[in-house]
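ENTRY TYPE: protein
WANTED: fold as tokens:
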Amino acid sequence: MNLETREENGVIIFELDGEVDLETSPLLRQALLDHVNKGTPVVVGMADVAYIDSSGIASLVEAYQTGRRSSTGFILANVSDSALRVLQLARLDKVFTITATIDDAIKDLTT
């Protein structure tokens, strides 16, 4: 997994690329929690996620729940078909806010 991070309008944007699995999910988990715990809204761009396993999903869920407790925004954006199928199987597509684009997610978090 490659993880690129940038800030735009006070929102931290993580763009994931590749496979989010047992080997790479601890890095993602820590990065997400570092920002969510600071109260910074987070967007996770997932257009280039080829594969995500349960450990990757668990990292996203933990960051989402942590953000929810402190009213910190957390949105998944531009989710690849393969990642979306995993989210749908776990019925997490009904839990997470998922937008079509990163720009849409930023708008949702800043308006």
In short: The chain has one domain: 2-110. The first helix runs from residue 25 to 36. The radius of gyration is 12 Å.
